[in-house]
Fold this protein.
Amino acid sequence: MATATDGIFEVDGQTDFEADGDPIHRTRKTAMWVFLGSEVFFFGAMIATFLLYRHTTNGGPGAEIFNIPFTSATSFVLLMSSLTMVLADNAFQKSDQRQGRIWLVGTALLGLAFLAGQIFEFTEFVHEGLTISTSPFGSSFYMLTGFHGIHVAGGVLMIAMLVAFSLRSRLSPDHGMNVELVALYWHFVDIVWIVIFTIVYLLQI
Amino acid sequence: MLRIAIPILVFGALFAASCSSDLPQSSLNPRSVEAGRIDQLWSLVLWISVAVFVVVETALVYAIVRFRKRPGDEDEPKQVHGNTRLEIAWTIVPALILAFVAVPTMVTLSELRSPAEGDFLRVEVIGHQWWWEFRYPDIIDSEGRPLTTANEMHIPAGMTTELQMTSVDVIHSFWVPSLSGKRDVVPGRETYLKITPDADVAGQMIPGQCAEYCGLAHADMRFRVYVDSDDTFDTWTAAQLEPSPIPSSDPAAAGYETFTQLCTTCHQANVVGPGGSSEVIGAALGPDLTHFGSRSTIGAGIEENTAEHLAEWIADPASVKPMTPELNDIGAGRILGMPDYGLDERQIAELVSLLEGWK
Amino acid sequence: MTASNEDLGYTPSTKGLWSWITTIDHKRIGILYAVSSLVFFIVGGLEALLIRTQLATPNGTVLSADAYNQLFTMHGLTMVFAVIMPIAAAFQNYFIPLMIGARDVAFPRLNAFAYWLFLFSVLLLTSSFFLGGSPDGAWVGYAPLSTQIQEYVRMDYYSIGAQLLGFASLAGSINFVATIFTMRAPGMTLMRMPVFVWMTVVSSFLLIFSLPVIGVGLWQIFIDRNLGGLFYEAQAAGDPLLWQHLFWIFGHPEVYVLILPAFGIVSEILPVFSRKPLFGYSFVVFSGIAIGFLGFGVWAHHMFTAGMGPVAEAGFGLATMLIAIPTGVKIFNWIGTMWGGRLTFSAPMLFTIGFIAMFLIGGISGVTHAVVPANTQQHDSYYVVAHFHYVLFGGAVFGYVAGAYYWFPKWTGRMMSETIGKWNFWIMFIGFNLTFAPQHILGLDGMPRRTYRYADGMGWDVWNLMSTVGAFLIALSFLFFIYNLIASYRNGKVAGNDPWDGRTLEWSTTSPPPVHNFDEIPVVHHLDDFWYRKYGVDEEGRSVKLTAEQAGKPDVVVEEHGIHMPSPSFYPIVASAGIATLGAGLVFISSGPIGFGVLGVGAVVTLWGVVGWAAEPATREAH
């Protein structure tokens, strides 16, 4: 993708005496982890809101509206997409661009399938009387799952960009790095879903 | 010398002003048990704060004076990097001072927050944009209706009153500094406050106002607490429980006609006709007007309650106090002011006659 | 020795508007932040003067209640988000790479993006004056007041404007953390970093973890106002206190974000003008870290009157007292730095001493807030207004002005006028205290805040008038400051590399530095490494200037590949314009099709910016 230096000088391949490995790699990974740290608090605050309002149903539907088998299926789909993402990352590390692209496309498709499942589920809920305006429960449910969906969609967009760049020969072993960053993001979004699925759907405290 | 003398004088003056006051709405003019406890705690904290301030600022000033570079002085200072023992000392000493303050803080907090016990008066406080509703759930008339008034509260001296508070719209805060610290009134929740006015405060009027920004007329959401002797309090409650008479002669009678057509959209009154049985007319969206004539202010403490001011109010309420009645949505329970009904002088005079007659 | 353009690896155009629009040079971005901050300080200051004029007398009629409520809301938002945050960002942007011996930040284009997003967001927020009305819910925007009136667009500017500003700050914070942790010069261990760098680390982490929380709250406000949400609808059992928690979990760390960089600046200035090292460096660093951690545990001290219950109130009260300890430690260490030194009182030092004196007062009044029962009298009164202005103006503003005087020579190559600086200081010092000291009394005497007028006969008249006079004095002092900036930029004495005989690395390069910062990256062996290249220490521990022979050749990094600097880029401004446009579309989303139209344009522009950014290489070959 981008060429190497991005403003960082090199001293025999190292930036400081504590480092090992490609300095830009370290910098970008640090940034992604820090960003994911902020995302933990973003989703954490929405989960906290949901926990506050999980019984505030204002006369409308509550957790009984959930279809656990269906959501388990879509969760499984998302989980599988993390697997394909690992395989994609692996392929790019080994410089197999074509195989990497295949697994990336697979990941994106699984992600889209998850999103389709979410949309289907939400339309069902709306028919059964749970909208964002029904109750604080409804508002916090849709906000939490909606923002998660937006993050999945953002991930799909990034995967699409990776595929496009790979096709135009702008992803190389030096930049296998960027697939790794997107993969980190993708796994994070998947883990967030596991937490949401557990707290919102399964635990029903 | 002047540089040191002036700040000392200034801060001395400020300090003196922070100790006590006789201003009507001052927290430094405590006239209840609760405000007194807070004031005591405040005095302790003030003294300690001043001491810390003096010590540290003196060290700062001393350093500036003693270690300034003098002309011709080219010696380099010793490159001291720190002193661990000093660090420990000036970490522990402040911690001890804070611990010392924490104890009376926690004790006072738990005293003030404990529920009222024994014989106490209950008053419900309901915040509205931009006025205060006061109800006495235990002081009821023959029909079982509790005493309801607005913007003026009467409570007995030397006895505890417990306020049970909420809001119908946004968050407000009930603050009468000379009698208590403030407590927010929150829609959907109940909050509590205790006030035990000192016995010698009987006969005094103590002002307060809303202390949580609540929109356009937040600054104009004021109230008065009248601390009464037992007799005065009983007289007042008895009078407030009586319904007001429907007037039979003009101009008040004509005013009553207008009242029932326009004002009852938002206002309530407990009225009794010549026949004898009383009824409550109108909606409880705005202040209860049954004994409007007995109140000392209008518009939630904005103007003195005189015929002239009342006429101004009715003629153009928003000129007395900023409001946005055009945003009123009675169905949704959002009342943001009293509209201008475009009444003429005669109609206004009739209404004034009615309301001032309802003492 | 300066590197030629060919060595630099690119031929930038350094003049003209386009070069500023596409700059990704941290120094230029720092200057952009600084200029923006100053402009908005004037805006926020005018808002304050209007407020103070209205309050000079009881029952003032200068402003309507509606205008007043918008003005004080915007004054708070402007000063916090458009003045203090960016001036801190200005100093951090300019000096972090220089202080750690780097050539730029980790992500130069992200850096530019953060600036432009900041600027566009503030412009969006400020445009509210002309387009639909400004937010009028106070800077804290308490629900359900903030969600109550959906007919007006005002609070939508608030929820979106603050959200966008949060993104900008988040981008900046991630950049600084990545830079500081991975790009320090060889030998610069964490405990050899300047305190200013440390304070930036702590404040960046505070933002990274607190911004998302208010982000959630702001989206909830937006959803309630525009999408029928019921987060704060009391009739549906929505809880208004949820907003307060979400806001203050951000809001309290935010105040440390505002002050920590100023703590850092003061920690740099004192040693230079005392000619001694900072006293207790590691204690100053660790107390900064402690403040960061504790800062996340005290938020509900803003809610002592909200009815949380005595247990919560007691807990937060104690935690708040605790946080006074590391703050006190810093103040003592600063005085310790001066103690036994040889002090000179140039303008940076005057403002620094003013900072210490005023911040102490603000800190003490803050501790009195921790005394929960007393807090119930102080909260929402002018006593609080006095407290936070003492720490934010007497503290932060004095600290940042000190930084401006200190670092102006490095930015511009010229010294600011000392004479004007002294006038600036004294008028500001007197004006500031005249404005805010009386407000302590007003609060204790029962004057609530956020009130467009007050009654006469309350005993508040004299103090209010005094406060208003002081406010105009502050304005006068800023005229001196601005005049000093402009006149010195044109005609100031040439400064040279190291006019103050400094201790940190930025003074080792030219004034202003070349685009690549250092011809040779130093290898660092000490804290205050630059000082030890100039001075040794005698048997008594006093500094001794080294001769050229004694100093020897400075230990530097040998670079075999030449210096590669990142290329300017057009995409950061495009992406930020796209996101700001999306924001504008959201503000007007309930106003009909125009909102959706703007949203569409924003989406397209954002996509263009982001994809273009991802596709372009960071460095182009020289040509």
